[in-house]
Design a protein that fits this description.
The chain has 28 helices and 35 strands. It has 942 residues and is an alpha+beta fold. A hairpin with a 6-residue loop joins strand 24 and strand 25. Helix 10 crosses helix 13. The N terminus and C terminus are likely disordered.
Length: 942
């Protein structure tokens, strides 16, 4: 119900989508506008007005000597928006600031208040779900602006500015220009680098065991068991080895010969059951989603990156499907508990719902910002089937995930039993052992409980035993068993798994690094900066990240310490709770704390001493080989060439002997570029020497270009082998408009750098090749058609070989066609309709006959985003529970009918905006004492 006051009321939210949804709930007396995020920020020095650059704000945009007062300016692209908001405010009787109820949202509200300077009553309207009931409740129950939350956000913003502006220039001077450091990003990068270091230091160990198949009676009762003891000693498994490859305890380490001998002996031995143990099995549901667990599960089950998961969740929240998606609380409101329990009861029956609601206790870092867990919006949850006609793709998949997790969190435990059976056998005298024991385990779920709705995904774990659900045959102690087979099984220990986005978010949360609102942006930042890349789902650090992390560890140790970073987050929480002062904390961080003799950031940067840039960017991989991070990328270098002892640096006796002529010196260190596809843990000394050997042919002169006489050389570069011409010194020295670039061409995939000849190199350098002229019809401005001669060229591009005619490009099947294709063949390709994608059409996976509606044949195809049903006009993706092998024609026709009923998916294209150049001098809105007076009036709310 709307408040009783009369007149038009202006509500300001962050996003247009949110504004549109809320406007539909408030009625005609309300105007809902969007600020489109922050409207002002601390400018960079280059954006400062000229008269401010020489003052106290000139260096950081923050006056560090005056309580760290920030200098704010309205963003150039937000000035029009501010003018629109001011215009709307003039005709309004009240202003409702309805930004998100967290630090960032509170700060946006405060900046709006400072910039708009309203003369009408101002109210802070907060909610954590966008439903009609929630919005109307929020409009009727407002509060004051919480300046403690604003202080916390402002402290973080200033802290990040000081950190970045002080540390980043050090990286520019000592590692590479353009790099950046950050309070959270540098620590997160260190986590990924440390994991890669562990993988680099890892040494694999080999061990063997035996798997047997046994049965008490018939083959239908057969089960497998694994060798667990030999002569009273436990058989070694992967967890018994350290990362150095050494055995850690007193266990039986079997090699291939011993395992094979035991396997053969078991086939002839009498095997009996020596022990049967059974215990109850109980598994409890997971808590409802927090930001962290949502990102983890979206990564595991939906293959969504953290950034994409949050982007999709944001859309679901703004359109009223889920509650606020940035939270570290696992609590559910009373209405949500009731809704979840009722829906579980309706869908699965009363036995699947416990007598009392489940409450999940979790230590929340900042109770003042603790919203509910992420759940479906509203007092009654809509099922996935009910929203299927409104949302699709990732939005539907994520909503379904959230709905299932919420419902399952209020369901009963899964119940069952786990049986463990031990088998014993005495082997003959010739066997490697006398007494052996096998073990088999099986879990039987008798009541699925919450698992009927949802089961949490699991990350890959090292040396983990399979937790499989299987039923063992009924047996008792003394039961004699028949041996069906026994086989020796070899294993190699595996290195620590690389972080995925899911496991990195989990580790960040465990260490207290960052907060729910920053996980996705932090991971995105370290990827964008080139510190981390993706290999499948794994996060792989670059050599650049190694250099940056080493510099930070050696010269800014405290700033990348995990405990120190976590304590900074807790300090920001204290400021948000009103338990600490912004200026006091920033002064201690930047200038230091005399009471604890703690050095501040200013002095830390000023007293760096001499940093050896070359040493910082050098990673020793052993055997006289190092990796260096250079200006143009990473490369390997042989610091101890052949004939030099890598430890002492002295010429070895072998080199100094008879084979060396008097006056000879060891060869100069060799270098080779490291390709991007080689991960750091793969760069072993052996791999490095392989690259060095290949690079020995680098710059091999193939001959001279007949017309110019210039040398043509074959080289190996960062992006693969290529050929190029050597320009004369006087031509290479030209600069500016007269600068001449040497012709360069990459080798084809089937070419070998070592065997490449001059003729082939000249062919490569001749590309792009003019295939010929063809006649094309063109339409003039008067609408009349005319014929025009158009050139067709054959070119090799980033995505492979192709033909080009004007702006029309067509893919070629092989690189060889670049040399061989004729004009007639090219014209034949252009005569065919243009096909999307490079690959030829794949045959259908399954055929169902004509559709009863369209009359066209219905097939299942394998597309870019998975398998889908189509009749050539309508496409629909297979659901998760659709099995291609068992799918019937009726099901395929039904899916197409459902898709037609929903209609086409339309997406609005963003209109291109013309951004006017901002004036040289920006109108600045310096933070004034208005905030301080607001603080006096504000009441801190939980």
């Amino acid at each position: 119900m709307s408040p009783t006051s009369t007149g038009r009321k202006l509500v300001i939210v962050e996003s247009p989508a949110k504004a549109k949804t809320i406007a539909g709930y408030l009625g005609p007396d309300w105007i809902v506008e969007a600020s489109v995020g922050h409207i002002r920020d601390i400018p960079t020095p280059s954006e400062m007005p000229a008269d401010m650059k020489k003052g106290p704000f000139g260096r950081f945009g923050v006056d560090v000597d005056n309580d760290f007062e920030p200098y704010y300016v309205v963003d150039a692209d937000k000035k029009k928006k501010v003018a629109e908001l001011k215009k709307a405010l003039k005709s309004s009787t009240e202003l409702y600031l309805a930004t998100d109820e967290d630090r960032e949202g509170e700060a946006i509200a405060w900046h709006l208040l400072e910039t708009l300077q309203p003369k009408v009553p101002v109210k802070r309207m907060v909610f954590h779900e966008i439903t009609k009931e929630a919005i109307q409740r929020a409009a009727a129950n407002t509060r004051d602006l919480d300046t403690a939350l604003v202080d916390a956000q402002e402290t973080r913003r200033i802290l990040d500015r000081l950190y970045g502006y002080e540390i980043s220039p050090v990286l520019w001077r000592k590692v590479k220009a353009g790099l950046s450091a950050g309070r959270v990003q540098s620590v997160t990068t260190r986590m990924v680098v440390e994991r890669e270091r562990e993988r680099m230091a890892f040494r694999s160990a080999n061990y063997w065991d035996v798997e047997g198949e046994f049965t008490p009676d018939a083959a239908s009762s057969a089960f497998t068991a694994r060798l667990s003891q030999v002569d009273g000693k436990r058989v070694a498994s992967g967890r018994d080895f350290g990362d150095d490859g050494r055995l850690k305890g007193e266990v039986a380490h079997l090699d291939e010969a011993a395992a094979t001998g035991i396997a053969h002996a078991v086939l002839a031995a009498d095997v009996t059951v020596t022990n049967v143990a059974e215990k109850p099995y109980t598994r409890r549901p997971s808590a409802p989603f927090t930001t962290s667990t949502l990102q983890q599960e979206a990564s595991r089950k939906l293959r969504l990156s953290s950034k994409n998961a949050m982007r999709v969740a944001q859309r679901l929240y703004e359109n009223g499907y889920i509650t606020y998606m940035r939270t570290d609380s696992t609590a559910l409101s009373q209405s949500a508990l009731t809704a979840a329990r009722q829906q579980a009861r309706d869908l699965y029956g009363g036995d699947y719902v416990p007598d009392a609601p489940r409450n999940y206790a979790k230590k929340v870092k900042n109770a003042q910002e603790a919203h509910e867990a992420i759940r479906p919006a509203g007092d009654r949850f809509r099922t996935p089937a009910q929203v299927a006609g409104e949302i699709r793709g990732d939005e539907f998949a994520l909503y379904e995930l959230i709905w299932k997790r919420t419902i399952a969190s209020q369901m009963a435990d899964a119940k069952g039993s786990t049986a463990t059976v031990k088998l014993g056998a005495t082997l003959d005298r010739e066997a490697p052992a006398e007494q052996v024991e096998f073990t088999a385990s099986g879990t039987v779920i008798t009541f699925r409980g919450f698992m009927a709705a949802y089961e949490e995904g699991r990350d890959e774990q090292r040396n983990a035993n399979a937790d499989e659900e299987r039923r063992l045959p009924r047996m008792g102690e003394g039961t004699e068993l028949k041996v069906i087979r026994a086989e020796a099984d070899g294993h190699d220990t595996s290195p620590p798994a690389r972080y995925t986005e899911a496991t990195l978010v989990k580790a960040m949360e465990e260490k207290g690094i960052g907060r729910p609102s920053t996980y996705a942006s932090t991971i995105g930042t370290i990827q964008d900066r080139g510190y981390v890349s993706n290999r499948g789902n794994a996060l792989v650090p670059s050599w650049l990240a190694f250099a940056v992390t080493r510099l930070m560890e050696e010269h800014f140790t405290r700033l990348v310490d995990y405990d120190f970073t976590a304590s900074m987050e807790e300090d920001l929480d204290q400021i948000a709770n009103g338990d600490a002062q912004r200026a006091t904390w920033l002064k201690r961080f930047y200038f230091g704390d005399e009471a604890t003799s703690s050095e501040g950031l200013r002095d830390l940067v000023a007293d760096l001493g001499d940093i050896d840039a070359r040493a910082i960017s050098t990673i020793d991989i052993g055997d006289g080989i190092v990796v260096r991070v250079g200006r143009y990328g990473p490369y390997v270098e042989e610091v101890a060439p052949a004939g030099v002892d890598p430890v002492t640096g002295e010429v070895t006796e072998a080199y100094a002997g008879d084979s060396a002529s008097e006056g000879d010196a060891p060869a100069a260190p060799r270098r080779a570029t490291i390709n991007d596809d080689i991960a750091p843990d793969e760069m072993t000394p052996e791999k490095a020497r392989e690259l060095l050997a290949t690079a020995a042919d680098d710059g091999r002169v193939l001959g001279q270009e007949p017309e110019t006489g210039r040398d043509i050389i074959a080289k190996s570069g960062r992006y693969g082998p290529y050929v190029t011409e050597v320009l004369p010194e006087e031509v290479a020295a030209l600069k500016g408009k007269n600068k001449v670039k040497p012709r360069t061409a990459s080798l084809f995939k089937d070419m070998d750098l070592a065997t490449l000849d001059l003729d082939t190199a000249l062919k490569l350098l001749s590309l792009p090749r003019v295939v010929g002229l063809t006649t094309d019809k063109v339409t003039g401005e008067d609408g009349k058609e005319s014929e025009k001669q158009v050139e067709i060229t054959a070119q090799n591009g980033r995505y492979g070989p192709y033909l080009k005619k004007g702006t029309d490009s067509r893919s070629l099947e092989t690189e060889q066609q670049l040399f061989d294709i004729t004009l007639e063949q090219a014209e034949a390709i252009y005569a065919k309709p243009k096909e999307r994608g490079r690959a030829a059409g794949k045959p259908p996976l399954k055929e169902f006959g004509p559709d009863p509606v369209s009359g066209k044949p219905v097939v299942v195809k394998d597309g870019r985003f998975g398998e889908y049903v189509t009749d050539g006009e309508t496409n629909t993706t297979l659901r998760r529970d659709d099995d291609l092998e068992t799918m019937t024609a009726a099901r395929a026709f039904e899916m197409l009918a459902e898709k037609r009923a929903k209609g086409p998916t339309t997406r609005k294209r963003a209109a291109k905006k013309t951004v006017k150049k901002a004036a040289t001098k920006k109108t600045a809105a310096k933070k004034t004492a208005a905030k301080k007076t607001t603080a006096k009036k504000a009441t801190k709310k939980a």
